[in-house]
């Protein structure tokens, strides 16, 4: 069994330590000092893709596979090496991600449906290309679960198919490029063509088209056809668009979401992760504990996604939030108990210190009295036994004395 990170604890202290070795500058802070394009509606635009009987059947099968795994009776599967191994949740999620992009990625024998996510995206891309022809606007098309050289789908190459369908709809081939077809040596020339608007549609993955890809000059649309695996990958994708040097005042981020698939839930998970990270990096008030969110969905989450019922999806989300709130409550109670114990310990320590301080004061007073007695004794040394009268009447505590002996006795009786 492989172990994985379950949660982060002592988050405020963690961030204070992190700030000692890192200078943090968030996008929110950057937007105040650098001119950046505005995102349309201040959030990604969701494009819903209708489900189909094939996808609905696959979703039922994915749920069944997860249930069998939970019951300890996983289905026997053949891996890429031809070995027969136990099914696992990550395998199910990878298959579900692939099918959500195109059902043929899961089963190449299934048909190419007219209203599949790929075909809808091709038509939308062609329309955006035509509508912004005068401005020469650029679009980035993102796909991570497949690649031009991925053998997982047999002979199916979604990248090349996407390009061929665009060409069939009137987009010149020389205005389309696939990043993976080039090399690191040819990438600078490719980026230059994109910045000039000579290439207006660029396809790639987060790995090949993320960090280091400076093509922002005319970039207008960021098209996510699948859900990245991590929040930082979303940041890298959208960072190509919302970037200094983009000549567009407004840009658009598009999320293509398949109905009755896991797309919506996976986007929600990434959004919540991003929120936790941004709050921590911005030093905003946050929980002391942050639970790690898992992309391997439960059977309940899969069932909710398959129904395409917003209330079911919301119910599953609320149950997840309730679990997190209960965990937060338990952490809060634990912290309060610890604080009360610390307060009690320090109160007792303070009490002891006060008692020690009183003892010190008494010792000081006794020391001063002793010094006084020594002085008195010294001044009357050799006279204590005398009985002759004083030259003047001495008083102490309201009493009068005619003899030094009696006067000294009265004084010493108080010590």
Overview of the structural elements:
The structure is a single chain. The chain has 415 residues and is of the alpha/beta class. Helices cover 49% and strands 14% of the residues. The chain has 14 helices and 13 strands. The strands form 4 sheets. Strands 2, 3, 6, 7, 8, 9 and 10 form a 7-stranded parallel β-sheet that branches. The chain has a two-stranded antiparallel sheet with strand order 1-11. The protein has a two-stranded antiparallel sheet with strand order 4-5. β7, α8 (187-196) and β8 (201-204) form a beta-alpha-beta unit. α12 crosses α13. The longest helix is centred in the last third of the chain and has 70 residues, at 310-379. The chain is elongated. It starts with 6 loop residues before the first strand and ends with a helix. Residues 381-388 have low confidence and may be disordered.
Give the DSSP E fraction (strand runs of 2 or more residues).
5-15%
- H/I helix tally: 14
| Low-pLDDT residue spans | 381-388
- Please give the radius of gyration in angstroms: 39 Å
Termini, distance in Å? 79 Å
Average pLDDT, all residues = 81
**Succession of helices and strands:** EHHEEHEEHHHEHEHEHEHEHEHHEEH
By oligomeric state, this entry counts as single chain
Number of strands: 13
- Major β-sheet annotation: 7 strands, parallel
Shape: elongated
Helix content: 40-55%
Structural class: alpha/beta
